[in-house]
């Protein structure tokens, strides 16, 4: 009786141990003994690429660092890969911080005049070049909606870091390029029902103020596929808010979309 009960429990115990092992070393890459506590972001990296490098789920990394959509990260930013979720996002590194770090690490040279030590001033950091615009009509991007542009792009206004494309409630909203749906929901204040598509390691596109979403996170889409219906959530007229981001930074979508 007891031996039969024990044999019945063995599969359950093995399953529990397997789950515990998977949770303890979830998705680690081959040959990696442990995941480091932090990772410093390099230019060109995204949350997706960093998480993939360590065998982690990118949404878990975002939650651990309190990074919300559109999941912008900056070169020099230190991300936590282990531990509990953070209640507020880590500060983005500033040019002043980067300059001070280089100055302190370079040390000082002895002065030949008075025998005292003086630190050579750190050179001003070179500005990062803007990402080059894709040529118009290259076949990679398509317009996400058929309406006229009713609000242009402005890199100085946080509410206008994209295009406002007018239309009627219920008009089709299309993926501007093939990719994976990495966000589909209504949790972002000011954007209504929103979709974010990851196209590759550098490019994301975002679609806000939708009336209805037709895709879910994890879906793959081709350029031109319908992903939502145009809406008017939080706007004074029906309008699609459309963004393109390169390495996390917003760029003018008109530089990438083909001529109509």
TrEMBL record:
Region (Disordered): 75-143
Provenance organism: Thioalkalivibrio halophilus
Extent of Low complexity compositional bias: 94-108
GO cellular component: cell division site; cell outer membrane
Protein name: Peptidase M23
Ranges where the LysM domain occurs: 37-81
PANTHER family, A to Z: MUREIN HYDROLASE ACTIVATOR NLPD, PEPTIDASE-RELATED
UniProt-recorded Gene Ontology molecular function terms: metalloendopeptidase activity
Family annotation (Gene3D superfamilies): Glucose Permease (Domain IIA), LysM domain
Upper classification of the organism: Bacteria, Pseudomonadati, Pseudomonadota, Gammaproteobacteria, Chromatiales
Family: Belongs to the E.coli NlpD/Haemophilus LppB family.
Superkingdom of origin: Bacteria
One Pfam assignment: Peptidase_M23
